[in-house]
Amino acid sequence: QGANSRDRQLRERAEAVIPGGMYGHQAVGLLPDDYPQFFEKGEGAYIWDVDGRRYLDFMCAYGPNLFGYANPQIDAAYVRQLGLGDTLTGPTALMVELAEAMVGMVSHASWAMFCKNGTDATSMALTVARAHTRRKSVIRAKGAYHGAAAWCTPRPAGVIESDRAHQLFCDYNDVASLEAAAAQAGDDLACIFAAPFKHDAFIDQAEPDLAYARKAREICDRTGALLIVDDVRAGLRLARDCSWSKIGVQPDLSTWGKCIANGHPISALMGSEVARKAAASIYVTGSFWYQAAPMAAALETLRLVRETDYLERITALGQRLRDGLAERAQAAGLAMRQTGPVTMRLFLFDDDPDLRKGFCFASALLERGVYTHPWHNMFLCAAMAEADIDLALDSAEAAFGVLSRGAASLAPVEKLAFLSAGAR
Length: 424
Ligand code: PMP
Hints:
Largest sheet: 7 strands, mixed
Helix content: 25-40%
Oligomer: single chain
GO molecular function: pyridoxal phosphate binding; transaminase activity
Cofactor: pyridoxal 5'-phosphate
Order of helices and strands: HEEEHHEHEEHEHEEEHHHEEHEHH
Bound molecules: 4'-deoxy-4'-aminopyridoxal-5'-phosphate
Pfam family, one: Aminotran_3
Structural class: alpha/beta
Keywords: Pyridoxal phosphate
């Protein structure tokens, strides 16, 4: 990014009118300096930054892009409905159709409520669980992300103790710590939140341990608390159902967002019969929650989910990427760990506490037109083809070369010094 690039100019202007220049998960402050902040457009599996450079995008908007940016079928459904009406005085028939389609897809659920962001859905899940049980305590895993409301935001600024009250923490996949948290909650347990797999930032991902998932279900059955699977990030990339259906553990509530309308703004809370009454009793709403156009987009997205082999294809592409990277890393003499499901992998290098190797690798890929992430899980989309994966692998081979030649002399990554300071 040259000093005169449009991206630099926009960043300077943003400094004046946007607090911190940029906020939230799309701020590039903790990415290598050459990562662009602003983009011009997206099409299929590719994005273009404001300086006209094209990237094969392995972040997929942090999840929402499942069937390709500007997907013609989904966007046509969206635009058609926009012409008829979007934000109206009441919902359209699409709301009922969408609830039916989602209930038909998610085996644990018999109802759905729609909202806008993943945080809306997780916060509603918490409220439903408390309304249902008339209890306060919630168990969730340390480091797991469930959104940006005061009860769950990872940053402490502006959050007060009472926002965080009645929360107990366990270690993901650690049965003993889950049992200890349940014991501590005693007869006050309202719910247990579970990520479908461990997808925390900065650390290796982990598949859910069956014993852990079953223990969570068992504690809820024993105490009457509700089990919540937060599928906002992983939903539809692991299964055409709640992600824990794959391991045979059914939650009472599940939360959905990101890709259910391929990037159009809609999220959902789904639940089983046991929680229906409580869900009907809480007051939740928003000016834009009943918009018809995102519902039209969601219906078209779900049709593609049902009628295409997208999941088998992205899984095969993920395996091709995984195997190809492992082979090339080994040939370059580099120890890279690839963790998490193949459609949502995270790459980390051994002996890389401040991620200087990861930054070097990611920057070398970016320079070659491949957008990856050095510390967050990535995402595959159905607009990718084998040729795209092969292009990424060619770029990775070159990037591994850059890394192995430069590994000994890489500068520390000051902005990630907090990682080596023991925060992990
Ligand atoms: N839960 C999980 C697992 C997520 O990954 C996210 C978003 N990254 C959220 C909840 C919150 O979603 P949103 O940013 O749409 O509020």
